[in-house]
Amino acid sequence: MNYKIDQYFQNVYQEAAENRKPQSVSKADLSSMLGDFQEKKSSRPPEILETKELSAYRRERYVFHYTDDRPGPVYVLTPDNGAKRHPAVLALHGHGYGSREIAGLTESGEEDEEGSGIHRHFAALLASRGFKVFAPEIIGFGDRRLDEDKRRSRPKSCYKMGAQLLSVGKTLAGLRVQEARLLLDDMAAFPDVNENGPGIMGFSGGGLIAAYTAALDERIQAAVLSGFVNTYQESLWPVEHCLDNYVPGLLSGAELPAYIGLTAPRPLFIESGSRDPLFPLEGARKAVEVLGDIYENQRAAGQLEWEPFDGAHEVRAGRCVSWLHEHLSFQ
Ligand SMILES: [Zn+2]
C-alpha cells in the first residue's frame, strides 16, 4: 500500500504557491517573520585578542559585543597596502568550523597551508585584494557552539538553537541577521573603514544571512551570495537542509527569490556551482530569472550579475572580487 505521503507534501507546496497574495513582499514582512530581535546594542567597544602581521594583511582577532550578554569573536583583516582607508566587507562563513575556515586557518588556529577547502579562505583572499574584512564567528559554530556540543566535538549547534528559538516565535536565521546588522555599527566606527558603506559576502548558510541582511539593511552597498541563491521548489523544499534555513511563513508569502530581490536596486552578485547538490543549478537559474525581472523593473538590470561555474558546493571567488572593486568605493 502506498500511503501517498510524498504526494501530500507536494500538495502542501502547491497550496502555498496558489494561496499567495499577488503583491510583492516587503522588508517589514521579512523582518517580522525572522522574529523580534530588539535587544539593545552593547555600548562596549570591540576588544583585541591577538594580532599577527602577514605578508599582505594584518590579522586581528577581536571580541565584539553584540548585546551586553552576547559577545563573540570576529577576525578583522586589514590590507597592508599603504591606504589610509579601505572598503569594508562583512564575510559570513557557511557550515564548517567557523570564522577560522575563511580567515586562512585550520580548525585549531594554525596557518592553513594545505588548501582552502570549499570556503576558499575567501575572507583572507578579499583582504589580500585590498578590502578590510570582518569575519565573525557565527553563533552556533566554532567558539560559539553550546557547551555540550563543544564537549562532544559536535561541529554545530544549529538544531538545538533553532528549535529553541522557534519555540518562542523567533528564528536562528533572525538571530544571525540581527548580529550581522549590529556588527555593521561597530565596523563603521573603525577609522580606516571608508565612509561609503560596506559590502557583504556569504557562502551557503552564510549566504542566507548575507541575503537577508542585505535585503533589510540599506547600509550594504553590494552583496555577493555564493552557493545559496535558489528556490524553495528546487532546494529548500526537496533537500534536507539544516534547520536554520527555515523561517515560519516565509514560503506562504513568496518564493525565495522575492526576498533576495529586496536588495534591488543595490548591486548583487551570485555564484552557483554547476554540480552543487544542495542548491542545484536549475533552481539557481530560475531564481536568477526572477531576480532579473525585479532588477529590470527597478531599472537596475546592470546591477545584477550571475556567475555559474564548473564546481560543486563551494566558493568560486573569481569574478566577484573585481566586481566588489567596481562597486565599493576605494576613496
Ligand atoms: Zn546550520
TrEMBL record:
<dbReference type="InterPro" id="IPR029058">
    <property type="entry name" value="AB_hydrolase_fold"/>
</dbReference>
<keyword id="KW-0378">Hydrolase</keyword>
<dbReference type="Pfam" id="PF12715">
    <property type="entry name" value="Abhydrolase_7"/>
</dbReference>
<dbReference type="GO" id="GO:0016787">
    <property type="term" value="F:hydrolase activity"/>
</dbReference>
<dbReference type="InterPro" id="IPR025890">
    <property type="entry name" value="Abhydrolase_bac"/>
</dbReference>
<protein>
    <submittedName>
        <fullName>Alpha/beta hydrolase family protein</fullName>
    </submittedName>
</protein>
<feature type="compositionally biased region" description="Basic and acidic residues">
    <location>
        <begin position="37"/>
        <end position="46"/>
    </location>
</feature>
<feature type="region of interest" description="Disordered">
    <location>
        <begin position="17"/>
        <end position="46"/>
    </location>
</feature>
